Amino acid sequence: MCGIVGYVGAQQAAPILLDGLRRLEYRGYDSAGMAVCGPEGLRVCKAKGRLQVLAELTEEGRAMPGTLGVGHTRWATHGEPNDVNAHPQVSRSGLFAVVHNGIIENYAVLRERLEKKGYVFRSQTDTEVVAQLLEDCYVASRDLFEAVNDMLSVVEGAYALGIVCRDAPDRLIAVRKDAPLLLGYGEGENFIASDVTALLPYTRDVVYMDDGELAVVTAGGIRIYNERRRPAEKEHHHIDWDVDAAEKGGYDHFMLKEICEQPDAIARAITGRIQKGRVVLSDLTMTDREVRELGRICIVACGSSYHVGMVGKYNLERMLRRPVEVSLASEFRYSDPIVGPGDLVIVISQSGETLDSMAALREAKKRGARILSIVNVVGSSIARESHDVLYTWAGPEIAVATTKAYSTQMAVLNLLGLYFGDILGTVDLDTYTAMVRGIEALPHQMARILADTADARDGLAHAHIFLQVNELRGHYAARGILRIMQILIYELSRLRCRGAHDALYDVGGKLLHHIDGVVNVQLFQYSGELRVRDGVYHLLLIGSVKICENLRRRLL
Prior knowledge:
The protein is α+β, with helices and mostly antiparallel strands. Helix 4 (127-141) crosses helix 5. The chain is globular and about 75 Å long. The two termini are 36 Å apart.
């Protein structure tokens, strides 16, 4: 959930870092900080709480002059949220400042080793180990590149690192292993970031780093080295999102905006893939013969994408007349999966960077399976490592509770089923035609429903929604109810209601947020409660008359 932004160029770095971090606020955080190299050397400022606290401390960045720096928003993993544990973490002499997403798994062993050498640790974080270890390696070699590689040779875990050295005020070091990090190319300035939304106002030319890569970023250019530290040529990606696509655009919050963007998102996902009543997936490299010779089909995903897979399982089985297995990515590699040459593993991920899904993909690939991914972010790690990829083209999804990403994944998976079923001859013409027409009609139908409920704001009523569901409807209903509850919780917490509890369970008892068997949210006369007993979903709402009636009519 943490965010990284880095800048080197001719402009003042701190205001750019603050702006980039603001664009990553949606990811959630408990503290923020910046390190800037300038006339006064390497300066660090960090604070617990909202980013606005950091902005006020630094006078919107004006109090930290310098043209190179890194910024970070932290979600605590090691050590409580406070000023000391916030990033950047600094080495004992202030020579290095480090921002880090991920977890250093052997930090305790490394910390003990450094403490025996006389290093004193100020924070409880695993990241400070990286900073102190960098200084220890640098003192021995006096070579920044060598020191970074020496540090990396002993560090274990997942990390995206942004490194600044006081002795090298003209360059940033970026390193990636199992955590997203990208490079942004500008004119006389360059950037690093954990998410492209941080860079949209400054550049659309980006390179996604691969695992094991290291980049030296200066104002004049970026040098990228592969895992063997040989120069690497990387494909550049042009980001064609509008800046407004990653901002609220007049809506009260991102979730409402993204709910309302679903018709356009679905339209983009299916445009060009349905031609003259037929599904055409020119993105795929699979031949008709390869489709006919497919063995097992397995869908692997996490979170809401997993529920896309659960619904997709039933649709694919009906269209292809063969069994489809769905696995949680977090369990897949530990289950000794029965996949191999001739089998198809479909990996679904919005970001294309989901760590468990990446691990599952690599496990399946190692066993010889063909990988087809359904992802949103072009050029993401999962997309690059797949044999085939179908993009959803949903655009940036900022809200934590997925909306348009889920809808577009479902649409694309259904298109895939129709495409395979047509080749296999397992879908009769009437069913095929009806499903294609249904998918084509979705954008208009969704737009009409959203228009019908746009003014549902006034009046209060009780609505008791009682659902007795079979397995397939259960996956739809569970996601729908969770979305309702997440919207309620978000709205109430946004209004600073003390009764709002972020406590949601996924289907099958998979914990989404905090442990609580029942969800209760209350705001004066507006409340909701969800209980699940014996496959029966109970949702009690006190709210808008129109909202309650619409929910009851559509869910029942």
